[in-house]
Specification:
Elements (H helix, E strand, L loop, with lengths): L1 E4 L2 H10 L4 E4 L14 E6 L3 H4 L4 H8 E12 L4 H12 L10 H11 L1 E9 L13 H11 L10 E8 L2 H4 L1
Parallel strand pairs: 1-2, 3-4
Antiparallel strand pairs: 4-6, 5-6
C-alpha cells in the first residue's frame, strides 16, 4: 500500500499505525501521483475534494492504474441542492469550496479518458454535516434508501463510486 499526504504529522501517524505502508509526503501543488505508470491496481481517494477535482487527477489515475485497475472515491457534486448552497456560501466567505464541479461533467471526463463506471451511489441528501450526532440521521438515511435517492447520482450531494480503467479488450 502507498499512502500520500501533505501533512508530515499525519505521515508519522500512518507509519506508526501501518508500518508496512509506504508513506510519501507530497506538496499541495503537486500534479503527479508519485507512482510508476501502470503500477497500481487501486487508487482510493476519499474526501479529498481538492485532489479529486484537480484538472490533472483523472489523467494521472489513468496513467498509474493497470488495465482493469479501479478508482474508488467520493465526489462532492456542485449540481445538487447542498452543493449549490455550499458553493454560494463559500463564494461569500473565506471557507474552502468543496463543491466546484458538477459530477456529470467530471464523470464524462472519466469516460472520455477510458474508464467505465462499475458502481455509483448518491448520499448525503439531508442537511446534516458528516460529524452530526442528530437522532434523525439514521431515519433520514433510511428515507434516502426507501425513496431511491441513492440511485440519483447526477443530482446527489456526494457520490460514492467505483470506476475501472478499461482494458484494451473493453475499448474495442
Amino acid at each position: 500500500m502507498i499512502c500520500t499526504e501533505i501533512n508530515p504529522e499525519a505521515i508519522a501517524i500512518y507509519k506508526k499505525r501501518m508500518p508496512k505502508t509506504e508513506c510519501i509526503l507530497v506538496q499541495p501543488d503537486d500534479k503527479r501521483l508519485p507512482c510508476e505508470s501502470e503500477s497500481l491496481g487501486l487508487v482510493l481517494c476519499l474526501e479529498v475534494a481538492p485532489v479529486m477535482q484537480a484538472y490533472w487527477f483523472v489523467d494521472e489515475c489513468f496513467r498509474v492504474l493497470k488495465n482493469d485497475g479501479l478508482l474508488v472515491g467520493v465526489f462532492w457534486n456542485l449540481l445538487s441542492f447542498r452543493g449549490l448552497i455550499m458553493h454560494m456560501y463559500a463564494s461569500f466567505t473565506e471557507n474552502f469550496d468543496y463543491y466546484k464541479i458538477a459530477y456529470p461533467f467530471w464523470r464524462r471526463k472519466l469516460f472520455m479518458k477510458g474508464f467505465r463506471m462499475l458502481h455509483e451511489e448518491g448520499c448525503c441528501w439531508f442537511p446534516f454535516r458528516r460529524d452530526s450526532n442528530s437522532v434523525f440521521v439514521p431515519y433520514l438515511i433510511w428515507l434516502e434508501k426507501v425513496l431511491g435517492l441513492r440511485k440519483l447520482a447526477a443530482a446527489s450531494p456526494w457520490i460514492v463510486f467505483i470506476a475501472q480503467k478499461s482494458s484494451k479488450e473493453h475499448l474495442v
